[in-house]
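TICKET: design request
STATUS: open
ATTACHED STRUCTURE:
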């Protein structure tokens, strides 16, 4: 049996499993089986975790399709919530989590039962511009953003997030697997709703359309601040709900604020 904790951040759900319980060479296969929505527990990914100290840990993220991702902002926050519960933490406590994209510090802002609000240092985004040509010849201008993992951010004014009359999910899928991105990329569609607020849709590498993404939130905010002149404090609303970011300047670390809720504990057959 494999014990797990299930958690979500704005609907972006993860299974948290102690790494020592699953051999590393089996972790991808196990993640695919556990994440299956109809035949498994169901999740966007598995965060394999190990404690490295009383307030520190190490994680490895395997997506629902079995691919390994450098980091998930929401997944990291879910792990921080689990660590906080295990440690009996209160507001003001900080947990250090080592990811494949580097270390991330998570500050517990508030605790209410199994619901945590956490501020995560997400590193300094790296932003640039790029145009991607689709199979139909349409050129899509966007922003390439690194949050330790890759993102391509597209701005649109369409209320349904369409681009040139084409649905965002279709364009997101094509760009995710585009030859310009040999390692694939996450794709975000951004609609500016005010100087301090944007709305987004997300096609996540290894998952597909998803209700929320922490790094996608950060990437969308970084592109909006860098190229659209928006406020350095932004509310970013995805289908799963709002998160907020602070990015004091283009060379500073970005901080992501959002909820994480522990849903259940259980065991899955190994």
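STATUS: resolved
RESOLUTION: sequence designed for all positions
ATTACHED SEQUENCE:
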């Amino acid at each position: 049996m494999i014990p797990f904790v299930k958690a979500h951040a704005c609907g972006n759900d993860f299974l948290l499993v102690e790494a020592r319980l699953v051999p590393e060479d089996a972790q991808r296969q196990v993640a695919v089986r556990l994440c299956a929505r109809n035949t498994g527990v169901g999740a966007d990914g598995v965060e394999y975790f190990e404690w490295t100290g009383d307030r520190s840990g190490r994680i490895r993220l395997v997506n629902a399709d079995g691919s390994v991702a450098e980091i998930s902002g929401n997944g990291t926050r879910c792990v921080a919530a689990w660590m906080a519960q295990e440690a009996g933490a209160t507001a003001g406590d900080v947990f250090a989590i080592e990811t494949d994209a580097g270390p991330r510090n998570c500050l517990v802002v508030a605790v209410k039962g199994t619901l945590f609000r956490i501020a995560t240092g997400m590193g300094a985004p790296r932003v640039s511009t790029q145009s991607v040509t689709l199979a139909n010849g349409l050129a899509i201008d966007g922003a390439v953003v690194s949050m330790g993992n890759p993102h391509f951010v597209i701005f649109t004014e369409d209320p349904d997030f369409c681009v040139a009359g084409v649905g965002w999910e279709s364009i997101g899928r094509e760009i995710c697997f585009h030859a310009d991105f040999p390692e694939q990329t996450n794709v975000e569609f951004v609609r500016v709703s005010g100087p301090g607020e944007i709305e987004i849709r997300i096609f996540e590498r290894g998952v597909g359309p998803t209700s929320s993404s922490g790094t996608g939130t950060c990437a969308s905010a970084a592109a909006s601040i860098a190229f659209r002149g928006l406020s350095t404090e932004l509310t970013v609303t995805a289908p799963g709900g709002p998160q907020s970011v602070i990015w004091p300047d283009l060379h500073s670390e970005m901080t992501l604020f959002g909820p994480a809720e522990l849903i259940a504990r259980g065991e899955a057959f190994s």
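CLOSING REMARK: The chain has a mean pLDDT of 97. The chain is about 20% helix and 45% strand.
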